[in-house]
Amino acid sequence: MQLDVTTLEAKKAGKVDLPETIFGLDPRRDILHRMVNYQLAKRRAGTHKTKLRSEINGTGAKMYRQKGTGRARHGDRKVPQFRGGGKAFGPHVRDHAIALPKKVRALALKHALSAKMKADEIVVLDSASVKEPKTGALKASFAKLGLSNALIVDGKEVDGNFALASRNIIGIDVLPVQGINVYDILRREKLVLTKAALQELEARFS
After folding, report:
1. Which domains does the chain have, with CATH numbers?
2. Given strand 12-17, what is the order of strands in its sheet?
3. pLDDT tens-digit series, residues 35-86
4. Exposure pattern of 92-109 as b/e (b: 16+ CB <10 Å)?
5. Of 7, 8, 200, 51, which is closest to residue 113 (Cα–Cα)?
6. 3-state SS string for 86-103
7. What is the rounded distance in angstroms from the CA atom of residue 46 to the CA atom of residue 125?
8. Quick one: how far is CA 132 from the chain centroid?
9. Biggest alpha carbon–alpha carbon distance for the chain
10. Among candidates 81, 86, 64, 82, which has minimal Cα distance to 73?
11. How far apart (Å, rounded) are the C-alpha atoms in residues 164 and 172?
C-alpha cells in the first residue's frame, strides 16, 4: 500500500509504504462509535451541582401548625416546593468517564486510520515546517494542496513556526503524534500525516 509524498508547495517528494496492519483494516463503525463516546464522556467536567434540602441554610422549624389554617400541610421552608429550597433529584458532582479496554482503544485508532485510507482522505507531507510564522503564506500552501478542513499530525514535536502560522486558520488542527486520537481524525475531512508521524505510528503499533 503506497501513497505519494508531497511538500507544502504541492510538489511530489517520492512515495511511502503504509503498513496493511494499520491502514488496511475494514473499518468497524461500532468500534469507532464506542471510542468517540469514550472520548467525549471522559472530557466532560461533571462539576454541575445543585443543593439538596439538607444543604440549604435556613431554619428547620415548621412553617405553621398542621391543622386549622386551611392551607396545605408543610414542614420547613427548605423543601423543593418553595423558592430557595433544595433541588429534588438535581445534578451532582461526578465522573462521566466510561471504561474501555486499552486494546479496544488501540484498535479504534487503527480503524480510524483505515477509514480515512479507504475514503482516500489521507495526505502524506514530507515535513510540516516553515521558515517564518506567516499565516497568509501557509494558508496559500494549504489551498494548493486542497486542504480547507484537515487534521495535521507531525512527529514528536510540532515545528514552532508552523504551529504559530496555522493556529488562526479555521478548520485546521495541528497535533504531535502523541496527541492523535479517533475523535479528531473523524471530525476533519482530511488527515495529513508527515513522514515523521508515520514512523512514530509504525513504531507504536509494532
Report:
1. 2-44+99-205 (3.40.1370.10), 46-95 (no CATH)
2. 12-17, 2-6, 122-125, 190-194, 150-153, 172-175
3. 999 999 999 999 999 999 999 999 999 999 999 999 999 999 999 999 999 9
4. eeeeeeeebeeeebebbb
5. 200
6. CCCCCCCCCCCCCCCCHH
7. 39
8. 29
9. 93
10. 64
11. 12
Q: C-alpha cell of 34?
A: 464506542
Which residue do the cell numbers 451541582 mark? Answer: 49
φ/ψ of residue 16, rounded to 5: -140, 145
- For cell 513556526, name the residue: 161
- Name the band, by pLDDT with cuts 50, 70 and 90, for residue 206: confident
Q: Give dist(CA 46, CA 101) in Å, integer.
A: 22
- Length of the chain in terms of residues written: 206
Calpha distance 70→122 (Å, rounded):
75
- Asked whether the CA dihedral 194, 195, 201, 204 is positive or negative, the reply is negative
**Rounded Cα–Cα distance for residues 37 and 172 (Å):** 23
**The three three-digit cell numbers of residue 111, written as one number:** 480503524
C-alpha to C-alpha distance for 199 and 116, rounded to whole angstroms: 18
Chain CA centroid to CA 188, Å: 11
